[in-house]
Amino acid sequence: MTSDDFLSQLERHLASRLLSSEALARYDRGRLGKAFLAPLADAVARLSNDFTRARRALTEAASGDYWRDARRLAYLFHFLPRNYVKAAWVLTEAGRHAPLARQLAAKSRFVILDIGCGPGTASLATLGFLAALRPAAFHVNIALVDAAPNATQEAVELLRQAVAWLNAERREAITLCLAPQVGAAAQVESYLPSGGADFVWLSNVLNESDHASAERQSGGVPAWVKTLTREGLAADGGLYVIEPALHETARAAMRLRDALLEDDPTLGIFAPCAAAGPCRMLAERPARDWCHVALTWKPPPLVAQLDSLTGLRSQVQKFFYFVLRRDGKRAAEPRQGWSPWRVVGDLQREKGREKRLVCGVDRCALLTRFKRDRRPENAPFGDAERGDILWLSESPAPLADGLRLAPGARVERQSLIE
Ligand SMILES: C[S@@+](CC[C@H](N)C(=O)[O-])C[C@H]1O[C@@H](n2cnc3c(N)ncnc32)[C@H](O)[C@@H]1O
User: Fold this and answer.
1) Residue 65's pLDDT band (cuts 50, 70, 90)
2) Among 42, 248, 349, 380, which residue's beta carbon has the most beta carbons within 10 A?
3) 411 - beta bridge partners?
4) Residue 191: is its pLDDT beyond 70?
5) pLDDT digit string (tens) for 343-358?
6) Is 172 found in the same domain as 264?
7) CA-only gyration radius of the chain, Å
8) What pLDDT was estimated at residue 57?
9) Closest-lying ligand 1 atom to the alpha carbon of residue 184
10) How would you label 326-363 residue by residue, b for 16+ Cβ within 10 Å and e otherwise?
């Protein structure tokens, strides 16, 4: 089942469970009227405001408050699908790493630890990812941790439903064991799986849960996150962190990435960075820059309708992420004679040249292609999207404001969008 198919099925399931029968009938005929959607659109607009402009109030008052009122539906219909595609994108990148994909496909038992799980967004994406990777039977243990009881209940319901949908299309079944826990992320001792998890998810939770902590302010690792990586992550597992693509939240997560790598030398960066070591963007770029990727997708019908009622735009999802592992694997495995550069900026066109911000093994810099150097061999420089990796067959040369794409360099694009 593709992500698109899953999200369509999920949307109809939510509509049948949470909207009136008349609204469902209209949904099935193609479009819900404005009258049906107005209260939901209002809640989506409020929740979007909570997550952006009023973010501080949300974190300082009571994170997860939105699970107690109409914003719960806003989360389920609008934010769940948007966060699902982000998690699915991050997993797709992991799945394109051939040895990692083989290693996962050979396993028959998986453990997922989903902290700040909300409605189980990241676990749902992980289930879909594993189902596509492994046609043979497998078992998944999922520890679902959230401060909001409504959120964990929703996660349990949706994960059971998702497994039923997946199994309906499979010869060999997926079995599931869910361990929901209502509580604070910081109470790690109470939910750490023995032997560690294959997937530890912190998806859009750090900015809510740990906003004011002294460690985060100073760029250190909160004690519970230390315990989580030391004891909660299996030797061949991955820590998957997603945060909103906002200046403050992304830069705090960039500092956390650095602090985690410094604190525990057994951890290595899988993605998005081309190499270990301190974040090159933090070290070398002005404070106004923050690392994020952009993913273009086709939102399901209700998300699109809610977008047009609220003025939100879901088609391009921007987000910050990083993935840490202990086994030395990297999304951009070294290739003899080629250097990898993650695209972290949009194409800027200027007279006689095009530039984009890229992050490589030893620096984060504006990479310039002069118009006179345009060739079919370097066409991917112009076509690439934020989040792609550009592989260069020749090292770029220094320029006053960054680097110059060598005129004879071949450029290959490692993209997740086919
Ligand atoms: C923005 S939602 C993210 C949900 C889901 N992971 C996703 O990506 O869609 C943040 C979730 O974290 C939960 N949360 C926030 N702070 C928390 C904390 N300190 N401990 C446990 N859960 C927390 C909230 O209740 C909410 O469900």
Assistant:
1) confident
2) 380
3) 392
4) yes
5) 999 999 999 999 999 9
6) yes
7) 22
8) 65
9) 20
10) beebbbbeeeeebbbbbbbbebeeeeebbbbbbbbeeb
Quick one: which of 265, 258, 192 has its CA closest to 228?
Answer: 192
Structure tokens at 53: 């402009």
What are the C-alpha distances in Å from 289 to residues 90, 127, 204, 246, 349? 21, 34, 20, 10, 19
Please report where in the chains the tokens 């290693």 appear, as a residue: 103
Q: Is residue 116 part of a domain?
A: yes
368 and 236: one domain?
no
Model confidence at 44: pLDDT above 50: yes
Give the CA dihedral 139, 322, 324, 402, nearest 10 degrees.
150
Which residue's CA is the closest to the ligand 1 atom numbered 27? 118
Same structural domain, 259 and 399 = no
**314, 355: one domain:** no
- Ligand 1 midpoint to CA 190 (Å): 17
The CATH number of whichever domain residue 276 belongs to comes to: 3.40.50.150
For 234-287, the pLDDT digits (tens) are 999 999 999 999 999 999 999 999 999 999 999 999 999 999 899 999 998 888
Structure token digits, residue 124: 């749902």
Above 60 in pLDDT, residue 383? yes
Confirm or reject: Cβ of 83 under 6 Å from ligand 1.
yes
CB 289 within 8 Å of CB 281: yes
60 pLDDT more than 50 = no
Q: Is the pLDDT of residue 33 over 50?
A: yes
- CB of 148 shorter than 6 A to ligand 1: yes
For a pocket test of ligand 1, which of 79, 146, 210 has the largest count of ligand atoms closer than 8 A to its C-beta?
A: 146
Give the SS3 label for residue 242.
strand
Structure tokens at 135: 């046609």
pTM over 0.90: yes
Owning domain of residue 30: 3-325
Paired strand residues for 352:
none
User: Within the chain, what is the greatest distance between any pair of CA atoms?
Assistant: 64
Check: CB of residue 413 under 8 Å from CB of residue 383: yes
305 is written with which tokens? Answer: 């309708």
Q: Look at ligand 1, atom 4, and give the residue with the nearest C-alpha.
A: 118
Whose tokens are 């361990």? That residue is 179
- pLDDT score recorded for residue 155: 98
Same domain? 343 vs 214: no
166 lines ligand 1 (CB under 6 A): no
Question: Is residue 332 one of the residues assigned to a domain?
Answer: no
Pick the closest to residue 268 from 323, 214, 325, 195 (CA basis): 325
